[in-house]
Amino acid sequence: MLNGLRLRHYSAPQARGVLTHFVDVYLDAHADDGPRYTAERYERQLAAHMPRLGWASVTAWAGDELIGYIYGFPLGAETHWWDGIQWPVPEGFVDEDGRRTFGVSELVVRRSWQRRGVAWALHDELLGNRGEERAVLLVRPDNIAAQHAYDSWGWQPVGRLCPSWEGAPLFEVRTKPIAT
User: Fold this and answer.
1) Paired strand residues for 6
2) What domains does the chain contain, in order, with CATH numbers?
3) pLDDT tens digits, residue range 60-75?
4) pTM score
């Protein structure tokens, strides 16, 4: 526990009861990031991601308040995660089989709780027990605070990706070995 925080693991069925809290934390964390960060868009994202085989989340609670969470899922052979990858990336980098790569989709913490180690605790709790070889995530190049955090946690940049959905930003692709 970090400063009295409780970390809790959720599968997709378990998380359905706290989805409104997920959306609230997401909107708080992205309040200054522009019009793309809406409840409706994020609810669609959650609805698309949660049915994925192996979806997992870790949440951080301060009393009855959800203050942050991380979630992701293993990338299957038919994943669209890599749609929009900008080459060059190492040969075979985007080959997936459902056991090779864990995709971290979101790591968010309420603004009032940021820079207190909550994100790091969530990150380590989720990835510390994974069986995949590596984890991958996407981060906006203008998100300097996240860039520094990922650097300090051992994530390496490997390329850029621009998803095909309307208004998608360009992301930096980062990866980290996680197999134990």
Assistant:
1) 61
2) 6-177 (3.40.630.30)
3) 999 999 999 999 999 9
4) 0.93
